[in-house]
Write a structure and sequence with these properties.
Blueprint lengths: L1 E6 L2 H11 L6 E6 L16 E2 L7 H11 L3 E4 L2 H6 L1 H7 L4 E2 L7 H4 L1 H10 L7 E4 L2 H10 L3 E6 L8 E5 L1 H13 L10 E5 L4 E4 L2 E4 L3 E3 L4 E2 L2 E3 L3 E4 L4 E4 L6 H22 L4 E11 L2 E8 L6 H8 L4 H9 L14 E8 L16 H5 L4 E5 L2 E4 L2 E4 L3 E9 L2 H13 L7 E2 L5 H4 L2
Parallel strand pairs: 1-2, 1-4, 2-3, 4-5
Antiparallel strand pairs: 6-9, 7-8, 7-9, 10-17, 11-12, 11-17, 13-16, 14-15, 16-19, 17-18, 19-23, 19-24, 20-23, 21-22
């Protein structure tokens, strides 16, 4: 079958790599792809083809799909989903995986998501939604300034400012609503009390009727070691996370996923895709920090290193509402992904830096280097984004996977490379 994958980041490289392993896939296009994706091959030896069409260019993607007639289209990033690409493709009789525009609101509107959780008694932090700075500041003061200030719309995973004082909260509110740091995404905001506990990522594949719960993982959002610095799109992750045993994971699903799915059915929301709730494990049980409506990045990298089941089969079962029939298998090994970012990220950073050592890193046992912000320029792989690489390794246990991932990182060089040294360290503390 012919498959079109939309996106060009680290998540999409991992998806392309896994899709290319399927015996069913004979042709794989990625729009727009990146420098690493361009080096992948399907099982039948066909090169994965990067297509010069942007992930948000819906008319261009539609034109390409109508000409090439892919049997399946897979959507990676959040923006095309929020723009309604699934609705558009389905209107033209094209088979596509991902939530439709209405369902994508769980991520594209934090206000909608927060209100939905309130309606369906899904445990979350005390919060309020605001259209004006004055009321927002009054609520932040009620929380003594200890809060997360979140832009309502999409902001590349960076539209959340964490505050520890009233002064910081007021500055964050002004930054988003007055100074428009995140553009139109910040016209409305959600203010949420800061929760104490351990943060984990859940991933739930849903077909509107049933769902499949993925193993646990933990992301590292802050730019610097020790969870310091600014929020980023994610500086590294690992799976499984040891903070939830099987019984606790099932309890979290019962508290969050089941009422969410029932709420979707009650409100006529046809969610077929990946729900990714960020959870805080508090003394009062798990609470939702926010919902995302797609695969996490870099969580995808560790999940797909561990996944044994054919990804195409999962996507098709999801589209056809057959997930209840699926038996998903995972490798017993652990996986760790360490992100190598451009110097200055998530602020301003330079592009076009030559990357060395990629082949040496990829040659290590159990290692796969997923490209995020790279491009092929005059036969050379160079940096082209904030998060550049997701260096990912499998190991017999978490310590072995972590050691191998960092061994691979040591072999890769580019000017200004920024790396956290403590990915998975929390899980390995005595």
């Amino acid at each position: 079958m012919k498959v079109l994958l939309i996106g060009g980041g680290g998540r999409e490289h991992a998806l392309a790599w896994k899709l290319a392993q399927s015996e069913r896939v004979t042709k794989l296009w990625v729009a727009p792809g990146n420098g690493g994706i361009a080096g992948e091959f399907t099982r039948n030896g066909e090169p994965v083809e990067c297509v010069a069409v942007g992930a948000e260019d819906l008319p261009g993607l539609m034109m390409f799909a109508r000409e090439q007639k892919p049997d399946l289209t897979v959507v990676g990033p959040d923006n095309p989903l929020a723009m309604g690409i699934v609705d558009l493709f389905e209107e033209h009789g094209l088979r596509i995986w991902g939530p439709n525009q209405s369902a994508a609101r769980f991520e594209s509107s934090k206000v909608f998501s927060q209100d939905f959780m309130a309606r369906h008694n899904i445990p979350t932090a005390r919060s309020g939604t605001f259209d004006f700075p004055t009321a927002a500041k009054a609520f932040a003061a009620e929380l003594d300034g200890r809060c997360a200030v979140k832009a309502d719309g999409l902001a590349l995973g960076k539209g959340v400012l964490l505050c520890e004082s009233i002064a910081e909260a007021e500055e964050a509110i002004d930054s988003i609503m007055v100074d428009e740091q995140f553009g139109e995404a910040g016209s409305s905001i959600v203010i949420q009390e800061l929760l104490e506990g351990i943060e984990v990522s859940l991933h739930v594949l849903a077909d509107g009727r049933s769902s499949i719960l993925f193993p646990t993982s933990q992301d590292h959002k802050r730019a610097l070691d020790g969870d310091q610095g600014l929020n980023t799109g994610g500086m590294g992750t690992y799976s499984p996370a040891p903070f939830l045993n099987y019984e606790e994971l099932q309890a979290a699903a019962a508290a969050v996923v089941e009422p969410w799915l029932q709420g979707c059915q009650a409100e006529g929301i046809d969610f077929r895709g990946m729900l990714y709730p960020g959870l805080m494990l508090t003394a009062d049980g798990p609470k939702v920090l926010e919902f995302n409506a797609r695969w996490g990045d870099p969580e995808t990298q560790v999940y797909l290193m561990r996944l044994e089941t054919d990804l195409v089969d999962l996507f098709e079962a999801c589209i056809d509402r057959r997930l209840a029939e699926m038996d998903v298998h995972w490798k017993d090994e652990a996986a760790v992904c360490v992100v190598m970012a451009s110097g200055g990220y998530p602020g301003s950073y330079a592009k076009g830096k030559a990357i060395e050592g990629l082949e040496d890193a990829d040659a290590l046992e159990g290692v796969k280097v997923f490209h995020a912000g790279t491009k092929l320029e005059d036969g050379e792989i160079v940096t082209s984004g904030g998060r550049v690489l997701g260096v990912t390794a499998l190991g017999t246990d978490l310590a072995a996977a972590r050691d191998q991932a960092y061994a691979a990182v040591e072999k890769i060089k580019f000017d200004g490379a920024q790396v956290r040294s403590d990915i998975a360290a929390k899980a390995l503390q005595d």
